[in-house]
Amino acid sequence: MAERTVGGKTTGAATERKSVYRYGYRHSPDQDAGAPVRRPVVVVGAGPVGLAAAIDLGRRGIPVVLIDDADRIGEGSRGICWAKRTLEIFDRLGVGEKLVAQGVTWKLGKLYHGDELVFSFDLQPEAGHKMPAFINLQQFYVEAALVERAEEIEAVEIRWKNRLTGIEQHNDHVRLTIDTPDGPYVLDADWLIAADGARSTARDLLGLSFSGVTFEDKFLIADIRMAADFPTERRFWFDPSFHAGQSALMHRQPDNIWRIDLQLGPDADVAEEQKPERVTARLKRMLGDRPFELEWVSIYRFNCRRLDRFVHGRVLFVGDAAHQVSPFGARGANSGIQDAENLAWKLAAVIKGEAGAALIATYETERIQAADENIAHSTRSTDFIAPHSEAERDLRDAVLALAGQAEFARRMINSGRLSVATVYDSSLVVPDEDAFAGPARLGAPLPDAPVRRRDGRDGFLLETLGDGFTLLAMDGEAPVAPPAGIALAAIGDEVRDVAGVVAARLDATPGAVYLLRPDQHLCGRWRQFDAGKVAAARDRVLAAGAGLS
């Protein structure tokens, strides 16, 4: 059980400042076993990504040991923007509703050139989704909720103050050396998930390095406590009067906390710019005489880079340990959570003997596709926000000047394309035999929609899906009996498409069926049910597409 501390004092108040959650070190029997104990999965790193991976595996019945070298969370708010797809994953893991209730919900963005509004955009213009487009919520709150959820799962054990110091690769396992307050011990793992962040110890121990770019421009990030009636929206400025020649970003968080990012340029003195009096002066130019308090200040540079491979023998890299992107667009933590989801069901299937180890290779294939998309978007954002030459700046300013009147110019503006789920283009997707329209896409997560259960309760489509392979069937003349190992979610009698939104989003006709992977990505669809085709599609996924067509 965690203690919540504020300024060294224990408190239960959710709105107190500088929240820190502390977790006690516990001596494990594995430390006294004599010979190394062998565990199916060890996860290193108790951030959001590592916790999500451990929870997902634990819910699938896979025993997990999660180690972290700290015994606390709450060092600044860090990541704050959580996207719709990530919230849907959190909901499946059992914390989505809690986090949405705790966070600040938003979907509107506004972009300014100078002090003039150029245009606004709505990230979720349609209704009928359980989860909002985004919430803003400090990372320590997300981590605390995930730790609490992990503690409810018998298969998950968290070991705080356990620091990874050695990795020895073997054909069928890895041997880990772990340091603790009681001294080091050795632990064997069939698989190691490295979720230990941008400064990954696991990556260093294996001698791995990133390929990509580090941008020279520096950015100030500040969280301030301020009572303000600004609307709940994303505000981004190019060349505002309060910060001439640079960019600025503002977001609302819970507890009267506001996130402000200010571009400083490549020549900024890091030590000077973090001094409270200098930060305060900059913020006063932006906010005027409105009172505020500094909560957290940091300076960063963009990285757009990744490992060449995410799978190294029995060591599997996820999140910032595998790839890094700029914070504009909220692609870092959200992409990491989606890494964890992609990996968890595949690793569980391999451990249970339902699939061969080749399935793990598709984790690398699909999530490298996602990483490359994120890196490309982040690089283009950075190039637009911080042009490298006068010619690039002139082009950017011309685009901004035209954007108020011209749609094509608005499409060219890039203040950070916001995080969306990747549409996988891999061998795990069965090509359509029939034509389908609508927003549902093969390789993408199934779009949510409102439904009504037979007992009259209103709900949402994604809530009707389980953690395994699921066949979603639209009501038709012929009964649907999925092959063994595939659950059925039927739209018609038990669950009703009362508003017709399910049919519209799936381009569904009576009798149409849709095969969903355990991560809710659509991997096959047919106008009429054919048990053989459905079974072959599921087998294609579990065989990682090897030799199948």
Descriptive account of the structure:
This protein folds into 3 domains: 3-97 and 121-211 and 305-373, 3-Layer(bba) Sandwich (FAD/NAD(P)-binding domain); 213-301, 2-Layer Sandwich (Alpha-Beta Plaits); 450-542, Glutaredoxin (3-Layer(aba) Sandwich), CATH 3.40.30. 27% of the residues lie in helices and 29% in strands. The chain contains 13 helices and 30 strands. Strands 4, 5, 12, 13, 14, 15, 21 and 22 form an 8-stranded mixed β-sheet that branches. Strand 29 (513-516) and strand 30 (522-526) form a beta hairpin.
Topology readout:
Elements: E1 3-6, E2 9-10, E3 19-22, E4 37-44, H1 48-59, E5 64-68, E6 72-73, E7 81-83, H2 84-93, H3 96-102, E8 104-106, E9 108-113, E10 116-122, E11 134-136, H4 139-151, E12 156-160, E13 163-169, E14 174-179, E15 185-194, H5 201-205, E16 211-225, E17 234-238, E18 247-253, E19 257-265, H6 270-273, H7 276-287, E20 293-306, E21 311-312, E22 315-317, E23 323-324, H8 332-351, H9 358-385, H10 390-403, H11 407-412, E24 450-453, E25 458-460, E26 470-474, E27 487-491, E28 495-496, H12 501-506, E29 513-516, E30 522-526, H13 531-542
Tell me the CATH superfamily of the largest domain: FAD/NAD(P)-binding domain
Annotation field: number of helices = 13
Mean pLDDT: 90
Helix proportion range: 25-40%
Strand content: 25-35%
Tell me, briefly, the overall form.
globular
Q: Specify the CATH class of the largest domain.
A: Alpha Beta
CATH-defined fold name of the largest domain: FAD/NAD(P)-binding domain
Number of domains: 3
Low-pLDDT stretches: 4-17, 545-549
CATH architecture label of the largest domain: 3-Layer(bba) Sandwich
Please report the distance between the alpha carbons of the first and last residues: 50 Å
Helix/strand structural class: alpha+beta
Please state the CA-atom Rg, rounded to the nearest Å.
24 Å
Summarize the main sheet: 8 strands, mixed
**What is the number of strand segments?**
30
